[in-house]
């Protein structure tokens, strides 16, 4: 198994952590979609991170699709997306809002880092910033009151994705969100980041 992409991508990181939690051995190839564009294109002409290549040569893109594929390679009791309906629905809700927060973080980073200052549109930036906060607000409400892992009595994709999303935002937009405003999600992220599987996949 190979995972291609850099750990500063929350999408690459959530797959890498999930691979560790599921117990898969894999090779991580830290290739940038920017600085390593040509090298990446020789692996996947779409140049999309993460790109996953299974031992049989199967190539997949999009973190959510990769994770669904990996879940089907293990017994139901080990899957990171719960099988029981109510827990699965809850995990899907948390994961969805965490991915929305991630998307809005990425949009802000790209607006400030990649677009020339004279072409930046402040109303758009403020809208995306507000959408990110809205996602964190929903997530904090969903997580509040759950001191352990969120569902199924063990770490699941809901925990992984929410924790990765929060760490990514704190890293890429330092000072933009006060952790005290969303204490439940901040505490969840701190618990997760202390795990060996998270420590093994630091942001680059």
Do you know the CATH architecture of the largest domain? Answer: Up-down Bundle
Provide the structure class: mainly alpha
- Biggest β-sheet strands, sense, barrel: 4 strands, mixed
Helicity range: 40-55%
Counting structural domains, the number is 2
Shape: globular
- CATH fold name of the largest domain: Glutathione S-transferase Yfyf (Class Pi), Chain A, domain 2
Domain GST C-terminal: 84-204
Protein name: Glutathione S-transferase
GO molecular function: transferase activity
Pfam family, one: GST_N_3
Please give a structural write-up.
This protein has 204 residues and is mostly helical. It contains eight helices and four strands. The chain has helices at 10-22, 37-43, 63-71, 85-113, 122-143, 157-172, 183-193, 196-199; strands at 2-4, 27-29, 51-53, 59-61. The longest helix is centred in the middle third of the chain and has 29 residues, at 85-113. It is globular. The model has no long low-confidence stretch (mean pLDDT 95). This is Glutathione S-transferase.
